[in-house]
Write a structure and sequence with these properties.
By secondary structure, the protein is mostly helical. It contains 9 helices and no strands. Helix 1 crosses helix 3, helix 2 crosses helix 3 and helix 7 packs across helix 8. The two termini are about 65 Å apart. Belongs to the sigma-70 factor family. ECF subfamily.
């Protein structure tokens, strides 16, 4: 009989003992069978490192034990999420385009005359009413409305926006995020 055939016979002969050891570690027959199978595959691939004449069972048990601990460490890092609930909760809209849009808007705001920039920031960013903004600016409500209107038109021209849908999340991103919300 060749060394290769002897090794194969020794592997097959050790299966019942390996399965009993694996069952004692896992507590479940199917997991024990998977662990034994993985052990045998690893042993087969590493047979060149086995020293003939030494205890093959001890060598196989060491491989099995190490594989079990490796699986346990891996399992400790994994999160069970079969329905995808955790994954959906972690989904966020990509922010690259938003950051670029914000930078474009900040540059465009700097290109506005001071009175228009002040009016649109008070109304659009600060959320003030036209009356409150007029009081802050010390002018009539109609003047603030006019400044905001001119500022919006100028920003649209600077940013080359023809339609409100051209700014902000695109249709695909909006659709994906609506499904996860």
């Amino acid at each position: 009989m060749t060394a290769h055939a002897d090794f194969k016979a020794d592997l097959l002969g050790a299966i019942p003992n390996l399965r009993a050891f694996a069952l004692s570690l896992t507590g479940a027959g199917d997991r024990a069978d998977d662990l034994v199978q993985e052990t045998l595959v690893k042993a087969w691939h590493k047979q060149a490192s086995f020293q003939p004449g030494t205890n093959i069972k001890a060598w196989l048990f060491t491989i099995l034990r190490n594989e079990f601990y490796s699986q346990m460490r891996k399992k400790g890092r994994e999160v069970s999420d079969a329905e995808g609930t955790l994954t959906e909760a972690m989904a966020v809209h990509p922010d690259q385009m938003g950051k670029l849009d914000l930078a474009d808007m900040q540059r465009a705001l700097q290109m506005l005359p001071d009175d228009q920039r002040e009016a649109i920031i008070l109304i659009g960013a600060s959320g003030m009413s036209y009356e409150e903004a007029a009081e802050v600016c010390g002018c009539a409500t109609g003047t603030v409305k006019s400044r905001v209107s001119r500022a919006r038109a100028r920003l649209a021209a600077i940013l080359d926006i023809d339609d409100a849908s051209e700014y902000g999340p695109d249709a695909v991103a909006t659709h994906v995020m609506a499904k996860t919300a």
